[in-house]
């Protein structure tokens, strides 16, 4: 499943299921040791609808997205 299919699938989920997905992603990020923004550490934010994440996605320092060719070269 590619990113486009993932996003389309997430859009079809009810809002409470979308919140579960983002809670799980948050859990994985914390488990991987990724820092949370200082504002998030004070108190947990309520779940946001998927559209707000798509409009303002998480920012990862020093992240560079792969080109389509680079991504396809990784999966023969």
In words, what does this structure look like?
This is DUF2281 domain-containing protein. This protein has 76 residues and is mainly α. The protein has one domain (3-32, 48-74). The protein has helices spanning 3-12, 15-31, 38-42, 50-55, 68-74. The chain is globular.
Number of helical segments with 4 or more residues: 5
Gyration radius (Cα, Å) is 14 Å
Task: Give the total of beta strands.
Answer: 0
Reported for the largest beta sheet, the result is: none
- Level of helix content? 55-70%
Helix and strand string, N-terminal first? HHHHH
Shape: globular
Q: Roughly how many Å apart are the termini?
A: 14 Å
Number of domains: 1
The chain-level mean pLDDT equals 78
Q: Could you outline the blueprint of secondary structure elements for this entry?
A:
Layout: H1 3-12, H2 15-31, H3 38-42, H4 50-55, H5 68-74
What keyword list fits this structure?
DUF2281 domain-containing protein, globular, mainly alpha, 59% helix, 76 residues
What's this model, at a glance?
The relative contact order is 0.11.
